[in-house]
């Protein structure tokens, strides 16, 4: 366990800063885009600040690919 902490302390500070900026930027982007589309804005925002790049990839697949496929099939299933 002590070896893991030593490995983390070897990462330069600029890498940590870049990682923080990337995660925060992704989270803000997902929050505002999901709010525009009327989706779960807090879910996407919180997930976006904890991981990279899976939330962004999942959001684009869900919003632009799956939703368009669903609309092509005739809308909602509860009609």
Could you characterize the architecture of this molecule?
It is elongated, with a radius of gyration of 18 Å. The protein is 77% helix and 0% strand. It is mainly α. Helix 2 runs antiparallel to helix 3. The longest helix is centred in the first third of the chain and has 24 residues.
Most strands sheet:
none
Total strands: the figure is: 0
Q: How many H/I helical runs?
A: 4
Please report the distance between the alpha carbons of the first and last residues.
56 Å
What fraction, in percent, of the residue positions are helical?
Answer: over 70%
Tell the overall outline: elongated
Radius of gyration from CA coordinates: 18 Å
Low-confidence stretches: none
Structural class: mainly alpha
Note the run of SSEs as H and E.
HHHH
Summarize model confidence as the mean pLDDT. Answer: 84
- Strand percentage lies at under 5%
């Amino acid at each position: 366990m002590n070896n893991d902490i030593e490995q983390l302390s070897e990462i330069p500070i600029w890498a940590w800063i870049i990682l923080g900026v990337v995660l925060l930027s992704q989270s803000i982007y997902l929050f505002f885009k999901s709010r525009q589309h009327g989706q779960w804005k807090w879910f996407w925002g919180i997930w976006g600040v904890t991981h990279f790049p899976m939330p962004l990839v999942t959001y684009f697949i869900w919003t632009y690919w799956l939703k368009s496929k669903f609309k092509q099939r005739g809308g909602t299933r509860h009609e």
